[in-house]
Every structure is written in structure tokens, then in C-alpha cells.
Amino acid sequence: QVQLVESGGGLVQPGGSQRLSCAVSGVIFNTVGMGWYRQGPGKQREMVAQIARGGTTTYADSVKGRFTISRDNAKNTAYLQMNILKPEDTAVYYCSPLNYRGDRFGPWGQGTQVTVSS
Q1: 79-101, pLDDT tens digit by residue?
Q2: CA gap 30, 33 in Å, rounded
Q3: CA separation for the pair 89, 43 (Å, rounded)
Q4: Cys-Cys crosslink for 78: which of 22, 38, 43, 94, Cβ 3.0 to 4.6 Å?
């Protein structure tokens, strides 16, 4: 059973940075891609960034140039470095493993809240 634990959220000022972590268990980490998603107030959950098992990355247009997804296979952990944060980045952030087609699978974790506000 896949288990995901997201952490690193909090309150940050506009223009600031935050680094999220996603600890993964129940799956052979280096055989899956990883994705970060977010759900803002009153919005649907959306894909933010993906990293394939080989390291290829994909980003939503709204975060390109500001966010960086990475992974540490030795630690079974994925990261999301978020820079130049904007109020519209306020959301609960979730991670998920991805299959070979890039589709997510398994249950969602509890997420981590990121609030961008002055």
C-alpha cells in the first residue's frame, strides 16, 4: 500500500520561498515517476510538476521558472522547491507516484498547506 507524507508547508510572504518534501513508502521508489499537485480554495486539484523516473521534468505553465521538482532515490523522497511565491500559489499541496504513462496512482496523502500572504 502506497503511503505518502507531505511536509514543509507554512505561511510565507509574497516573493518568498518554500521547500516541500514527500516521503514515499509502499512502492519501489526508483521505478516510478513523482508528481506534485495542489488544490487552492474553491478550485479543483491541478498538476504542478512531474518528474519521471529518469529525471525528465514537466511543469504547469503557472509555475515554470519558479518551481523545481527533484527526487532523492536513496531517501525515497521527492521535493518541490518553490521560489518567487505568489498569493495565487496558496493551496494544499499533494504528491503522488506516477506510472509509466505518467498517470497517478494510489491514495492521496494528507497534503501540506502553503499560504502566501503578507
Answers
A1: 999 999 999 999 999 999 999 99
A2: 8
A3: 12
A4: 22
